[in-house]
Each structure stands twice: as C-alpha cells, then as structure tokens.
C-alpha cells in the first residue's frame, strides 16, 4: 500500500503495554480530515522524542500507510519520525468546534448496533452514547508487578537503543503497571428494552487519573477516582470511543472517553 500524507485529530491514546518489538506501545485513534475514524498502531509514545509527542484534541500531520498485518479498515501504521504537531482544538464555547469535527461520525446508542456494524462492514472503531452509566467495577489484576518477560521488554529500549541515537534518547522511568482493571457497566435503551453492557476502560487518561488519585489521596484514592468516573463524567454528555481487539475482533474495549457539556435546548435548533 502507498504511503500517504495525513492530517489527523487525536482522540485517543490507550495506556501503554509491553511490546517485544517496541519496548512499549500505545494504540492511538483519531479523525482524519474527511471525518473518518482512524487507528494508528503501534506507537511507542513515551519513547519518541518530546517534539514528536502529541496530545488529545491536537491535530498532527504524518505519513501513514495501511497496516499490512491488520486488515481492519481503520488500521494504519504511522511513520513516527514524520510527525508534526499542529494546533490544539480547544473546548471553546460549549465545545462548538469539537462538536462540529465529531459530527460526521455516527453516534450509536446501542452497543448491539456497534457489534452489528462490525459484522456487516468490518467496523472496528465506533462512538457509543449509552443511556446511562450504571457503575464502575474495579478489579485487582492477578499480578500487580510486571513479569520478568514483560520487564525485559520494557527496559530493552534503554539498553539497546533502537528508535534513537544516544543523544536523542529520552530519559524514562520504567512504565508502571496498573494494579487494577477498570470496567464501565452501562445501559443502552429504555424501559423493558434496556440492556446492560460491560467493557474495560483502557484510556491512558483513566490510568493517569488512578495514579493522580493514588498520589494525592493515598488510601482514599478510590472515593475520588469513582467520583470522577461515576459522577462527574456521566453528568456530562458522555460518549465512549469503542475499539475492538485485533486478534479477537468480537471483543471490544472503551479506548477513550469524550465528555462535552450537555447542549442547551436553544443550541439544538
């Protein structure tokens, strides 16, 4: 496939995970200029030079190529050394510009429709607007520390180089493993037709929120963490950016949370 120049609005960075080839990787997703969702993977985000790193709601320009080993239509590989950061799309008044940019994407109101689109059109990214968040499940991971194999992957970049010359190599702390998995339980539909679904949250922002709450509140971290994810964000016009897994494409994850304020009645007309 041809390598092309792309301009992409970043909507998602997932929490990094160990990688045999790249030390650690992140799945990045966003919108291209035509308003279509796009996945960029793998991105060794913490390992790339500071001037190549980017933020959620930032436009970037880079050379991309359709992924050779990932046949999901939205999946592309990015030439990391071609990234140029562009302007940030700020919330502004009532998220006007962000809403405009998101408007070409169909927002599903039922997870069954997300899965149906995967089965019929191979869709692997979607925006879902649940009727309500039922709750947040917090489950301890089986092993809160990296295995020796995982740790070896994480430190290989510092030992062997690879992406950088020694002068350019960033100084990094070893990636911290999240000691918990986080799952949203949410409801789609109304009345007797309502159904509850449960999906794992892998948004980097959720992982960062955990560490911030743990650092700031110690043993009381969970109350503050739940306050954000069970109360503050669901009080907004919460949307879930869903992405499926490459190897198990019927298994979906919540890869990013998008939470504009609710529109007033006047804004809808």
Give a written overview of the molecule.
This protein is α+β, with helices and mostly antiparallel strands and 269 residues long. It has 5 helices and 14 strands. α4 crosses α5 (221-232). It is globular, with a radius of gyration of 19 Å. Residues 160-171 have low confidence and may be disordered.
Write a brief caption for the model:
The protein contains 5 helices and 14 strands. It is an alpha+beta fold and 269 residues long.
If you average the pLDDT, what whole number results? 89
Which regions contain 5 or more consecutive residues with pLDDT less than 50?
A: 160-171
The largest β sheet comes out as: 5 strands, mixed, barrel
Secondary-structure class? alpha+beta
Strand content: 25-35%
Q: How would you describe the shape?
A: globular
Measured as a percent range, the helix fraction is 10-25%
Give the helices and strands as they follow along the chain.
Answer: EEEEEEEHEHEEHEEHHEE
Arrangement of strands in the largest sheet: 1-3-4-6-5
Number of DSSP strand runs: 14
> N- to C-terminal separation?
44 Å
Cα-based radius of gyration, to the nearest Å: 19 Å
Number of helices: 5
């Amino acid at each position: 496939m041809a390598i092309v120049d792309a301009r992409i609005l970043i909507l998602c960075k997932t929490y990094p995970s160990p990688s045999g080839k790249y030390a650690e990787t992140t799945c990045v997703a966003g919108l291209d200029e035509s308003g279509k969702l796009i996945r960029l993977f793998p991105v060794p985000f913490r390992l790339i030079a500071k001037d190549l790193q980017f933020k959620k709601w930032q436009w970037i320009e880079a050379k991309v190529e359709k992924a050779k080993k990932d046949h999901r239509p939205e999946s592309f590989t990015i030439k990391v050394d071609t990234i140029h950061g562009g302007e940030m799309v700020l919330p502004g008044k009532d998220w006007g510009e962000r809403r405009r940019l998101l408007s070409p994407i169909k927002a599903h109101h039922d997870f069954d429709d997300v899965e149906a689109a995967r089965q019929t059109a191979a869709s692997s990214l979607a925006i879902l607007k649940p009727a309500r968040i039922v709750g947040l499940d917090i489950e301890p991971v089986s092993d809160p520390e990296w295995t020796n194999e995982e740790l070896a992957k994480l430190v290989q970049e510092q030992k062997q180089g690879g992406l950088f010359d020694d002068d350019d190599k960033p100084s990094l702390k070893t990636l911290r493993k999240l000691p918990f998995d986080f799952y949203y339980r949410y409801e789609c539909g109304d009345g007797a037709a309502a159904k509850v679904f449960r999906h794992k949250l892998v948004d980097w922002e959720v992982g960062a929120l955990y560490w911030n709450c743990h650092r700031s509140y110690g043993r009381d971290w969970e109350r503050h963490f739940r306050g954000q994810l069970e109360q503050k964000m669901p009080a907004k016009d919460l949307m879930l950016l869903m992405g499926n897994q490459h190897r198990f494409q019927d298994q979906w994850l919540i890869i990013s949370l998008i939470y504009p304020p609710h529109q007033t009645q006047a804004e809808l007309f």
